[in-house]
Every structure is written in C-alpha cells, then in structure tokens.
Amino acid sequence: MGLLVQAIRGMNDLLPEDTSVWQQVEKVLRQTMASYGYSEVRMPIVEKTSLFCRAIGEVTDVVEKEMYSFEDRSGDKLSLRPEGTAGCVRSCLEHNLVYNQEQRLWYMGPMFRHERPQKGRYRQFHQMGCEVFGINGPDVDAEVIALTYSIWKKFGIENDLELQLNSLGSANERAAYREDLVKFLEAHFDELDEDCKRRTHTNPLRVLDTKDEKVIEILKDAPKLKDYFGEETRNHFEKLCSYLDKLGIKYVFNDRLVRGLDYYNLTVFEWVTTALGAQGTVCGGGRYDSLVEQLGGTPTKAVGFGLGMERLILLLQTLGKVSAKPSVDVYVVGAGEGSDVYMLTTAERLRAALPDARIMTHCGGGNFKKQFKKADRVNARVAVIIGENEIANGTVTLKNMTDETFEQKEFSIEDAVAAIASMIGL
Ligand code: ATP
Ligand code: MG
Fold first, then answer.
1. pLDDT in tens, 299-317
2. Which residue, judged by its Cα, is nearest atom 19 of ligand 1?
3. Which one-letter DSSP state was computed for residue 123?
4. Neighbours of 117 (CB within 10 A)
5. How far is CA 215 from CA 61, 75, 167, 207, 210, in A?
6. Mapping DSSP to helix (H, G, I), strand (E, B) and coil, where does residue 78 land?
7. Could you say which ligand is closest to the alpha carbon of residue 271?
8. Which of 284, 318, 366, 367 has its CA 20 to 30 A from that of 376?
9. In the predicted structure, residue 61 carries a pLDDT above the cut 90
10. How far apart are CA 224 and CA 177, in angstroms?
C-alpha cells in the first residue's frame, strides 16, 4: 500500500530512538538554565507577521525569504515563528515583565523557516534560547556566554566549538560606518555577486556576512567597523574579553560576524564547529538594546542567544557523546492461571514503589520463551517472573538479564523493590 500523504520536506518526525537522545539533551539544557537562575517562558508558535517584520527587519533573509506566512480565516496575517526573541519581547511587553525590571528567561521549542533542507538545516527545527532584560554591562554578556560554554562542558564538547566574537557598536557608530562601507561597495559594485549588490543599498552590513570567496577577498580592503568605535563601545568589548579570559573561555575575533537578524548591537557571538560542514553554527547571540523600544516598550537593555538543537545533537552524535537509551528497565513476564491479573497488579505496586524505574508488563500471553525474547528485545535489565508459586505465595521471582552470575530468586514484593533498585542502579 502506498503512503497517500507524506510529511513536509524538512519537517522531521522524532522517533523513539531520537526522542531518547533529545530527552537527555533537553534535561541538561533545563538543568543548566535553572542552575543560572533563569526562568522558562513558553510563547505561542504563531504570531502576527508584523511582529517579525518589525523585530527581525524587513530586509533580512528570514523575513524576505524564509517565513511561513499565511492569512487565517479571519484574514489576519500570521506567521509561524522563525525565531524566539521577537515573541519573547512581545510577551514581556504585554505582561509588563521588563519595565524597570530585570528578567533572565529561557525557552525551548520548534521554529520554522522555509529554507533548502540539508544536513543541519530544516524547515521545522528547534531552538533553546535565552533572553536577559534590563542589565547593561558586559558582565551579563559574559554570563550568557559562560552559560553556553558550561553546556558544552557538560557534554565534553568544549574543545570542538570555537567562540567567535565581534562588536557591532552603537547605532550611531554603525550609521557612520555604513556610509563609508556603501561608498567602498559602490566603488567595487561590478565585482560583487547579485546578493551583495542588492544588499549594498538595503542592508550593507550583511555584505560582510557573504560566503562568496571573491567578495570576501575584496572586503579585505573595506573600512573596518572597529575603527568607528567610541570609548564606550571599546570599553564594553574590552571588559567582555577580560571576563572571558578570567573564566578561561577562549575566543577569536571575527570582524565579519554580523549575524543574520537586524536587531543586534555591541556584543555578537557565535559558537562554530568544523564537524558539521556548512551548517557549523550551533549557537548565536548577542546584545539587542533597541528591540524592546522598537516593539513599543521603554528602552530596555537586552542580551540573548539561540541554540540550534538539531545541530547540537548532530554534533554530539558525530562525536559519539550521546546514544539512545533503552526505554525499559524491568519486564514483567508470567504464565498460569490468574497470572494476567497478578502481573498487572504487581507491576502497579512496583511502579508506585519505584517511580523512576521503567517497568513494562508483557501483554498478550504466550509461553515464557516468547516472553523472555520480548524482554531481550526491549533490552530490559531485570525480568520479574510470575508463575503459580509466586501467585500462591504473594511473591515475585527476579532474573538479572545482564548478569549471568545472579541466581534467579524468589522475593517478597518489598524485598523485590530493593533488589530491583540496586540492579538497575536507582
Ligand atoms: P545560519 O547562518 O546557519 O542560517 P542563522 O544565522 O540563520 O544560521 P539564527 O537565526 O542565529 O541562525 O538561529 C540560531 C541558531 O539556530 C543557529 O545558529 C542554528 O544553530 C539554528 N538554526 C537556524 N536556522 C536553522 C535551520 N533552518 N535548521 C536547523 N537549525 C537552524
Ligand atoms: Mg539562516
């Protein structure tokens, strides 16, 4: 039978062995955010299209080419969120969370971009992101970077990612630079590729981000943004670097790093790996002090990042740092008169006593041989065996499926609980 309807290209199902890995990664992310005192927020997946146009910028790849936008039945123009920051700021303004307050927030969930699907690039992907509001200094920029670094350390991949750092200066500094950059680009206009030609007049800083080797070569002689920095910007950047030095976090300066979204100023950073081919940026972020005002709030300092979870997981898998775990610890088998009821009720008692143990009851009958095969197939470490004797004595027999030297033995339910806990390492 042919499948009549397939999934949308670039939107993936996560199957049991995937979700096992995802849950392990999510657990580390949640635990890390909590350990830095950040609170979780959950925003809708759909927002008004105008939110993203305003926040991200009309002339960005995301808004120009990548958004899933549609009109709903009432004619409202809506989009699937391509990133989390815009919705997070909208939500904070709507619920008055940032006026004269500090907030350290994080979120995790699916994002949508209509891009060409390839390894590490999908149309539905997931980000874990954090946003800090109301704090000015480079100390919190350092904290946000340290936080990401601590995630890499927990997975043992801190040496597989390079921290690239840049400063985008203030709006005024960028405006002065922009003028000179446009002059430079106009002087080399014929040598630019189509994308860069277009950007020269719409969003010239994005030209710096080009992947075109020829343009990269030309840009070597272009004016440098850092030559336009005043004392405040220089101090912010130098302070941040000194904090990172003290924290033992290595970085490289990349003056072509401008980030894809329009709202950044001062600090921008990316964590990049060479292990994933062209999709090497696992996490990117920076400061966006004008966004809150741009969306109608009072001026509020802000810094954050977005971490691509598919890319993190691909990297962990490539480096052999995670693997799927079996979903069952204990498999309950049984045969004989009344075993069906005794299996169900005993499994409930064991689960109540061992809430962290994963206990599966064999269903559908069959002989012991067949049932043990099932126990093996689900990789259970312990089999709980129920026969006529056990039912009569109100006991269970335990078999350690991974340790041949363990002798199969009958236990009272209370003793079985302790024995199972020790066998599965609870
Ligand atoms: P790229 O240059 O790879 O397109 P970006 O600058 O568009 O990335 P951001 O908007 O900064 O990405 O999003 C933060 C992170 O989310 C990225 O560093 C990446 O890890 C991840 N990400 C972005 N787009 C995708 C996608 N289409 N599929 C999977 N992950 C993605
Ligand atoms: Mg992109």
1. 999 999 999 999 999 999 9
2. 308
3. S
4. 16
5. 18, 43, 21, 8, 7
6. strand
7. 1
8. 318
9. no
10. 8
Polymer length in residues for the chain = 426
Could you give the count of Cα atoms lying within 13 Å of 71 in the half-sphere of its Cβ? 4
Here the tokens at position 409 are 């033995």
Task: Kindly state if the Cβ of 52 falls inside 6 Å of ligand 1.
Answer: no
Assigned token pair, 123:
């149309």
Q: Which atom of ligand 1 is nearest to the CA of 311?
A: 20
Closest CA to 166 of 299, 258, 104: 258
Q: Which two tokens stand for residue 276?
A: 């994933």
Q: Tens digit of pLDDT for each residue in 208-265?
A: 988 888 999 999 999 999 999 999 999 999 999 999 999 999 999 998 898 877 788 9
Q: Which of 281, 287, 307, 310 to mutate to test the pocket of ligand 1 (most atoms within 8 A of CB)?
A: 281
310 lines ligand 1 (CB under 6 A): yes
Ligand nearest to the CA of 281: 1
Q: Which ligand is nearest to the CA of 82?
A: 1
From the DSSP assignment, how many helices (H) and strands (E) are in the chain?
A: 15, 16
Q: What pTM does this model have?
A: 0.93
Minimum CA distance residue for ligand 1 atom 28: 121
Q: Which atom, in ligand 1's list, is nearest to the CA of 307?
A: 15
Q: Indicate the pLDDT class of residue 57, thresholds 50, 70 and 90.
A: confident
Q: Residue with the nearest Cα to atom 11 of ligand 1?
A: 284
Q: Is the CB–ligand 1 distance for residue 380 below 6 Å? A: no
Tracing tokens 């927030």 back to the chain, one arrives at 105
Residue having the nearest C-alpha atom to atom 15 of ligand 1? 308
Is there an atom of ligand 1 within 6 Å of 54 CB?
no
Alpha helices (runs of H) in 247-326, residue ranges in sequence order? 291-294, 309-318
Place of tokens 């775990």: 325
Q: What CA–CA distance (Å, rounded) separates 363 from 385?
A: 13
Check if the beta carbon of residue 54 is closer than 8 Å to that of residue 103. Answer: no
Phi, psi of 199, deg, nearest 5: -70, -25
Instruction: Kindly give, in sequence order, each residue whose CB lies less than 8 Å from that of residue 175, ignoring residues fewer than 6 positions away.
Output: none
| Whether 231 contacts 173, CB under 8 Å | no
Q: How confident is the model at residue 13 (pLDDT cuts 50, 70, 90)?
A: very high
pLDDT at 341 exceeding the cut of 70: yes
Instruction: Identify the DSSP state of 261.
Output: S
| Beta bridge partners of residue 284, listed in sequence order | 270, 306
